[in-house]
Each structure stands twice: as C-alpha cells, then as structure tokens.
Amino acid sequence: MLTVLSGKSRPDTGIPGECTMPDKKLKVMILAERFYPEEFIINDLAAKWSEKDFEIDVLTQAPSYPFGKIFKGYSNKLFSRDQWKNINILRFFTITGYKESLFLKLLNYFSFALVGSIVALFIGRKYDRVFVYHVGPLTLAIPAVVIGKIYKKDVTIWTQDVWPDSVYAYGFRKRKFLSAILDGFVSFVYRNCDRIFVSCEGFRQKITPYAPCKPVYHFPNWPVIPQGVESDSKRIKLSDKFNFTFAGNVGKVQNLENVVRGFSMASAKNENIQLNIIGDGSNLENLKEIIDAEKISNVVFWGRRNQQEMPAYFNASDVMVISLNDAPIFTLTVPSKFQSYLAAGKPIFCIMNGEVRRIVEQYQTGLCAAPGDLKGIMEVFLEFYSLRSGGLQSFVKNSRILLDSIYDRGKIVDSMTNLIIDGRLP
After folding, report:
1. 83 has which bridge partners?
2. Long-range contacts of 368-374, Cβ-Cβ distance < 8 Å, separation of 24 or more
3. How many whole angstroms separate alpha carbon 307 and alpha carbon 305?
4. Which residues of the chain register pLDDT less than 50?
5. How far is residue 101 from each of residues 266, 280, 420, measured CA to CA in Å?
6. For 203-231, how does the pLDDT look when each residue is reduced to its tens digit (9 = 90+)?
7. Starting from the edge strand earliest in sequence, which strands make up the sheet with 366-368, in order?
8. Smallest Cα–Cα separation from 273: which of 304, 311, 235, 319?
9. C-alpha angle 245/250/255, rounded to 5°?
10. Do residues 65 and 94 lie in contact, with contact meaning Cβ atoms separated by under 8 Å?
11. How big is the CA angle at 216 (ends 364 and 322), to the nearest 5 degrees?
12. What topology does CATH give the domain 242-405?
C-alpha cells in the first residue's frame, strides 16, 4: 500500500492534518536552484507557506531553465532581489549555455554551491529554518549545510533525485575513485540535515545507509495542474484521431525512442491514432531525426508550453504517456508529471518498470508496457484505442480515488509544515 507519510517515529501531536503555527513569524530560507518563473512544485509550497504567515526568503539563481538562457525581463546580475506572492527572492548569477555543454552545466552546479555558500555566510544567521528543494545536483545543498554548521540552524532537505544513482543514470561510469568521492559527499550532506523528506518512497532505501540516524519522511509531489483548471487560451484540438500525449522534458532518460518506435508499429496497423509530444529537451532533435529517418507518421511535436497552457492540451488528449528508461534508479522514481496526469482525469499509459507501474496496476489507472518491449508498447497503444467507446472511464474514476487518498496537497503541506515548525508530525 502506498503511504503518504512515513518516518522513524510518528508521535501523536493532535488532529491529523492540523497545522499548529508558531507565536511569531517563522523566518525560513528556501534554497532552490530553480524557482519562479521557472515551473517547479517548490513555487507552490513556498506560496502556501507564505499564506501561513511564514516569512519566506528564497535563495536561487537568475531564471534560465530549461533553455540555458536568462528569461525575458530578468538580468544575470551578480546579485539581485525581487518579490513574488510576498516571498523575497534573492538571486545570483547563472552560468548560461549549459543546455549544450556538459562542462558549463557542471560549472554552473559548482558555481551555485560556491556563490550560494558565500551569500549564506552573510545572511544565514537571521533564519529560523533552512529548507532545501533538491532537484538536480545535490551540490546545491552545500549552502544549507554551511548555515546549519556555522549558525546551528535547523535544516530540512526535500529530495527529488537520489545521488549518486542519478549521476550514474545520466551516463557517468561508476569508477572506484568517483564512487568513493560521491558516496562521501552524499553522506556528508545528509548527515548534516536534521531531517530528510523524499518525494518517492523507494528513495528511502537508497538514502538511509548514508545517514542511518536521520529521520526520513515520504512526501510525494502533488498535482502541479489542479483538476478542472482551464488555461487562459482557447480550447485546442490536437486532431480528429485518438490522441496519446507525452508532456515534459524530452531527454535521453525518457525512453522516447522506444515509445515512438512502438507507436510506429501500432500506427502501421491503425492510422486513427496520433502521438503528441509536448516539451523540449536535450534529446528532442535526435528524436526528430529518428522520426524522419524511419518515416514514422502521426507524431506531432508541439514544443514547450507553460503550465497555464497545459490543461488545454491535457483536455484535448485521450491518453497520457509516461516513460523512463529501465535504469535501477528510475524504477524507484515517480515523476511529477504522473500526479498531473491523474489530476487531468486521463488514463495513463505507463512505459516504465518499478514504482509507477506498481501504482498504475494496483489502482488500475491505466495500462502498462515494459520500456524495452517494442511489441508490448505497440499492443498497448492498440488496446487503448479499442477501449475508446467506454472502457476508459474506470481508469479516470480510479485516478480520482488515488488523488484523494495519496496526493492530497492540503494534507501533505500541513504535515510538512508541522515538521518544519517543531519536528513533529500531526
């Protein structure tokens, strides 16, 4: 059974879901490589905490994700400030161009750790709590560790990516020397946090050996796009065909080469289906080349769209596709798009092994295929089409049950808040 929360201890502190606020405003620093206007769930959490009368400062970089270029209306200054929803955002410079260069990407990671630590030395004393939103490099947590050790502040990390497994999954070879360095670094970071939140239950088994005495709590991501929210743009139409849609990062780990090849086999048997790919990423051009070279038809690229536009695309789709490579770390991962798909009220085509497949099959929210099984992928595309006249509604109903029981934003945020305030669950 999938659980919303878990940890080493769960003392009874009152009514479940009730959040006890401190007598004075709690000053919280959120450390995040990415923040508004970049589209990540930390924006929503910070806004909710601001509504709860926390005094929130966010230490982050100039916004540049995912294109590696500074957003229009922002400048890449050494240091700048702005505000969003009563949240003070403290920004320092970003090393741009990381989309095309691994060297620049790594340099940006180390730049964040170094400059963030320098800033933290000057401002860290004034905060009551430090909260790390860990998506991407774990090196971003170094400024929080600096504040925790020097000023004895309470530090919490919410881990969305497991190191060092993510490093190896993205192509770095597991050499003895590299492994020793990464293992030591990961242990250093987690041992210097007061508590660890994980977005996927499976991450617990990976993290606990690095910091066996630290409490680990499972707090999954909630839907980024709430059910029923419409975009400001007009309703769109993808096609007159039966529409499958993948939305999100188009990277090497998303396994989209196998998805489009399985779709090609299905499309050859049934021309009434279309695969829509919404998003951008490092593997996009390679994917387009495969489609052109292999003459794969009925695949449409819509480019990157912002969150406000996505409900219209979801509503116009018949089935949502989620896919990752079959690397060990990804069998533990629940990508945040999964919850957004559930909230959109659409059946899910899961082309993954591990945790997401288990959830989809247990709660019967869609159909699944193995990432490397092209024939199986083809067969599921065709099976979904065969259910178009009424067999899809049970998937939608089960998605709502799963959302209400596991991914309820209010319950998750209240429990996280109690732990941030006094280290206890409600």
Report:
1. 88
2. 369/262, 370/326, 371/255, 371/258, 371/323, 371/324, 371/325, 371/326, 372/258, 372/326, 373/262, 374/258, 374/261, 374/262, 374/265
3. 7
4. 1-18, 226-233
5. 36, 16, 37
6. 898 999 999 989 999 999 988 654 444 44
7. 299-303, 273-278, 242-247, 319-323, 348-351, 366-368
8. 319
9. 80
10. no
11. 30
12. Rossmann fold (3.40.50)
Residue 349's DSSP bridge partners are 321, 367
Tokens 């409490």 identify what position? 215
Cβ neighbours for 299, distance < 8 A, ≥ 6 positions apart: 260, 263, 274, 275, 276, 277, 291
CATH topology of domain 27-222+408-422: Rossmann fold (3.40.50)
313 token code pair: 């695309």
Six-digit token string for 416: 């996280």
Contact 197, 153 (CB under 8 A): no
Q: Hunting for tokens 């048997």 — which residue is that?
A: 269
Q: Which residues lie closer than 8 Å to 70 by C-beta, 6 or more apart? A: 62, 63, 64, 76, 94, 96
d(CA 65, CA 83): 19
The angle at the Cα of 76, spanning 72 to 77, to the nearest 5 degrees, equals 135
The segment(s) of the chain belonging to CATH 3.40.50.2000 are: 27-222+408-422, 242-405
Residue type at 255 in one-letter notation: N
Per residue, what are the HEC states of 36-72?
CCCCCHHHHHHHHHHHCCCEEEEEEECCCCCCCCCCC
Residue 1's pLDDT is: 34
> Residue 404 CB: number of other CB atoms within 10 A?
10
pLDDT of 132: 96
pLDDT at residue 21, as a whole number: 52
- Written as six digits, the tokens of 291 are 């489609």
